[in-house]
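Board notes (copied after class):
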Amino acid sequence: MGESMDKKRTTEPRSEKVPKKVIKKVAKNAPSPDGRARFVTTTVPPTRQRSRAAPALGGELTRTVRIQPRAADAWRQFAYELSIALEALEEDEFLIIQLKSAHRFIQFAAQGSFGMRAEAVSDFYLEEREHLTPQQAVQLVELGWNAPTKLPDELELGRHTADGSPNYFLDLAKPVPYDSLAGLAVATLGDVFGAGHPGELEYSAFAADKTCIRFPHLGLRRRPG
C-alpha cells in the first residue's frame, strides 16, 4: 500500500467507428442544463454508411453518441462511487487512490468495529521535487486532516505507537460518514494534489493477506502490481 498506516491497522458486437463528421457535429452541442452527460442522436448521410462489413444502405442511419460530463460533474459522480467503495471495505481491507503522474495519494484502512483510518501523503514519503508547498500543507489542515504527528517507523525512536501518523490522517469511529469522507478525498486530490479530473487517478485495493480487490465502478485504472 502507500506508506505508513499504523501497524494496528495494517500488516500492509465490435464497436462501431463514429465518422469524424458526426463527432464534430456532436462536439458543438452544449452540455445539458444540469451538466450531466446526455445522449445526442445524429443522422449519418447514406454516403457515409459504407463499411467493410455491409454495403451502403438505401436510407439514413441514426447513431447515438454519448457526451462526457464536465469535470465538476465527473468529480461529483466519482465522490458518490468512492463513498460506495469505502462502505464496502471490510476489516483489514485497504483502498489507495493515487495520481497517475505523481506519488500523491490518499489511503483508507477499514478497521471493523473501530471505524476507518484515512491518510493523505506527507513529505516523509515524497521525493524532494514533489514536496508539498506550505500553502498545500495549510490547505490539508483546513480541509480537516490532522497534521503528521510522528516520524515514519523506521526513523522513530522507541516503541511503536498506534496513535498518530507520519502522514496527514483521520481516525473515524463508527458510523463512518462515508459521503463526507469521499468529499474530503475529492477536495484533497483535486484542490490540493492537483488532479484536474478523476481520469487522472488510479487505484489499488487489497486485503491484509494481499488478496486483490477490484472496484470497477470507480471508473479508474487499476494500478499495476
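Comment from the instructor: Residues 7-39 have pLDDT under 50 and may be disordered. Helices lie at 20-27, 71-88, 134-143, 178-192.
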